[in-house]
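Progress against Task 2.4 (sequence-to-structure conversion) is shown through the following example record, which the project officer requested during the mid-term review.
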Amino acid sequence: MPKANFAKWVAPAELANVILFLASPAASAVQGAAVPVYGHS
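Structure tokens generated for the chain above:
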């Protein structure tokens, strides 16, 4: 995994995109997974 840049917050739109994907039919094969969302370095 890449090193997280804790000095940079993830933009709300970036986090929303991950949530929208996980709630969509395209993520039907994703089960029981932790999905890290990192800020840009």
